[in-house]
What we know:
Elements (H helix, E strand, L loop, with lengths): L6 H12 L10 H15 L7 H16 L3 E14 L3 E7 L3 E3 L1 E3 L11 E8 L2 H6 L9 E4 L12 H4 L1 H4 L1 H7 L4 E5 L25 E4 L1 H12 L6 E7 L2 E15 L9 E6 L9 H17 L10 E6 L7 H9 L7 E4 L7 E7 L5 H11 L5 E2 L8 H10 L2 E7 L4 H4 L12 H18 L12
Parallel strand pairs: 5-6, 6-7, 7-8, 11-12, 11-13, 13-16, 14-15
Antiparallel strand pairs: 1-10, 2-3, 2-9, 4-8, 5-9, 10-12, 14-16
Amino acid sequence: MKFTRNGAAIGALALALSNPVAAKPAEGSGVAWEITEGLTTEIGQRLAGSDREAAARDWAVARLKALGFSNIRVEPFTFPGWVRGAEHARLTAPYPHNLAITALGYSAPTPAGGLTGELVYFASLDALKAAPKGSLNGKIAFIDHAMVAAQDGSGYGPYGQARRQGPMIAAAKGAAAVVIRSIGTDLHRNPHTGATGWSDGANPIPAGAVSNPDADLIARIAAHKDRKPMMLSLTLEGRSVGPLPSGNVIAELPGRDPSLPPVLVACHLDSWDLGTGAIDDAAGCGIVTDAALAAQRGGKPLRTIRVLWAGAEEVGVFGGAAYAAAHANEPHAAALESDFGADRVWRVGFDFAAANAPLADRIAAALAPYGIVRKAAKAGGGADIGAISRAQKLAVIDLDQDGTRYFDLHHTPDDTLDKVDPAQLAQNAAVWSEVLKIVANEPGPISGAVN
């Protein structure tokens, strides 16, 4: 579904006309929208460790208190920080072009005044891996790839390695800097940011991503019959800094039986700084919070529902790790996370112990009227529930959202509220509330599969 400036209203109408079941109204769906709108409007971008992420924590505490949650607290932690600086790129030869570029998180800065070097084209990450050591001394590597849109977002894992591993591999080959095609599926001149990684002992180099149209330009020049060398002038002033503060916001809706382990639902509060973090992940916080409240209507469930709005996810899932460390000795029953935008849930998956197969069957049956199918693969969970789920072998439920357009917007300046379709957001809240009503009222033991 493509969206115009009035895309939210158009999308809601189209969804209602084409699939009335998918557009089924949600109990309290206004809360999901209010949280998404409030975070993007009153707070905006929420780069981990920034004053805006801190303001978002204060906002979250006040909002959750007003909604009637209990045991609301911020659990602070620190993490290795990174701050953005000026960023410019210009192809100076063989043809002059200004490029739309953004630094990757944990990029090293270019020298004062920037750097200029030959831009060496690699059609894939594997092609870069095959380059001889030292062959890129003083040069700038460009890594291309061919990510395409998919409903399940399956391309992000393999093609995302160009961002996660590519800079470190280029540095090991002697590169002075690295530029990648953005990890995204759009045709807009918006670069996609995101974190890269450096192993212990690695020498970080400047690392950036250009928009897909600019990557197409570089690829065409590289394939040109004249094969003239490309030269790039690059300035990326983002840099790593000492430990910065972040924190997890936690709140609960107590159940009738406090002896039963709680159900954990999670999102992340921070965002990248190019947009306002609407789909990634204000919408997720709106969905899980709305659903937790809706699950209380008609009677308090047996189990406590705990909401985790995690901090510093984008730069390394530090909030999820901090939560797992802080709550290692506290039993949990099941965990769910919303961190894949705001488009409709289309599939459900489980990682349950064999004894909980009937519970999974009940959930799948309750979601069938929404047109939601069951996947054969084991649920993978989400980034912020990953550490605690693995440590305690929790039951995990995936509520897979339609990711067809997610990577058009992910980590770009276009991650803004107008991209959120209210009808699809409401469908998410409704589906989540159906699941929580069942899980939070399960009296018996709930756990994940042993293997």
